[in-house]
Specification:
Elements: H1 7-12, H2 16-30, H3 36-46, E1 59-65, E2 68-73, E3 79-81, H4 94-105, H5 110-117, H6 121-133, E4 146-155, E5 185-193, E6 198-205, H7 210-217, E7 226-230, H8 233-241, E8 245-249, H9 264-277, H10 288-301, H11 307-317, H12 321-326, H13 328-336, H14 338-341
Parallel strand pairs: 4-7, 7-8
Antiparallel strand pairs: 1-2, 2-3, 4-5, 5-6
Helix pairs in contact: 3-11, 4-6, 4-11, 5-6, 7-8
Length: 343
């Protein structure tokens, strides 16, 4: 019977309201964009809801507002809803935001996303960093087996800052930076095990030291692991102090020990990050942690059958996202503090 139907004629007979409803149903049927309310409802059945203000789980229902369930905390007596503290708290255009999640998963640039969503580029920029703030906890993981680590230096960048303390560069070649490690560069620590778990974190301005190694990867590596790295003295001293089995390599002399110890995985991650981040034409050091988390999360979900759903679950479940986003300037000032950035 369906074969004999003339769909154009059937559609033409519909009223404008019916056509609009049909379009909405077809879009929801074939769209890959998740509905955040639905994602959150499913998560509520799988995990315990806690207060975003004091983290207490002693809560109870407190009615609803704009179709969102509300709660009240018995410990701090504050009210909240399912999205308080998350990246979508207080959003005016949740539908557009849901579409943008898919663009972030595809690493689309700001200008392209702004044009596609028909939104101001400033709005898209704010949304990007709210979403990336939701990824602030993906580095809270442990490694298993052999772990490779490396320190990587990136030029300091004040991209987007209006009141510079120097003359702005007209072109990248105007930048007079020192070769090698210097206080003109920020060091990041990159670590990965053989199961694909990756961690990338900003360590400090200038050369890494034992304290910065401990701060970035210390809580992920134990005596049960075997560490592989280059022959950086700070990494060697840190591993010795933690009594971790450690194998070092000098790239010009040796690449593999005993057919299993090497740093090829972590070097490959470095190279992939450099290729990926080029599309953004430089990232401000202030937001560098966000971009590192973005890349690590993309690495984590690249084999997922539902990467957009994975993104949505992280966004609706991180109740500390707004707090992390608001602390960006403070974290950047702490990074530049001389007591942490002296080479």
């Amino acid at each position: 019977m369906i074969k004999n139907m003339n769909l154009p004629e059937l559609i033409s007979d519909l009223s404008n309201e019916e056509k609009t409803e049909l379009f909405r149903l077809l879009k929801s049927e074939f769209s890959s964009t998740p509905v955040l309310e639905t994602v959150k409802s499913k998560l509520n059945k799988e995990q315990v809801t806690s207060c975003p203000h004091c983290k207490s789980i002693e809560i109870q229902g407190h009615g609803a507002y704009k179709a969102r369930k509300r709660y009240i905390c018995k410990s701090c007596n504050k009210t909240f809803n399912d999205f308080t503290g998350t990246a979508i708290s207080g959003l005016k255009k949740p539908g557009k935001f849901q579409e943008y999640i898919e663009l972030v998963a595809e690493s689309i640039t700001l200008r392209k996303a702004s044009a596609k969503l028909e939104l101001n580029i400033k709005t898209v920029f704010d949304w990007r960093h709210k979403i990336l703030s939701s990824l602030s906890k993906i580095n809270d993981l442990g490694f298993s087996g052999i772990v490779e680590c490396d320190d990587k230096q990136l030029n300091m960048s004040e991209k987007g800052k209006r009141n510079l303390e120097r003359e702005p560069y007209k072109r990248p070649s105007d930048r007079d930076t020192k070769r090698g490690v210097s206080n003109d560069k920020v060091s990041i620590m990159v670590a990965s095990d053989r199961n694909g778990n990756v961690r990338m974190s900003v360590a400090k301005i200038g050369r890494i030291d034992i304290e910065s190694v401990e701060k970035t990867i210390g809580d992920s590596i134990s005596k049960e692991n075997i560490l592989c790295s280059d022959s950086h003295p700070s990494i060697i001293s840190w591993a010795k102090g933690r009594e971790i089995e450690h194998h070092t390599f000098v790239a010009s002399k040796q690449h593999v020990k005993n057919k299993c110890y090497h740093v090829q995985h972590v070097n490959s991650i470095d190279n992939r990050y450099e290729r990926w981040v080029k599309r953004f034409y430089g990232t401000a050091t202030k937001y560098l942690d966000n971009y590192l988390n973005w890349f690590v999360f993309l690495e984590k979900i690249k084999k997922s059958l539902q990467p957009i759903d994975d993104f949505a679950k992280v966004i609706v479940s991180n109740i500390d996202a707004i707090a992390w986003n608001r602390s960006t300037v403070l974290r950047y000032e702490n990074l530049k503090n001389p007591q942490f950035s002296t080479t």
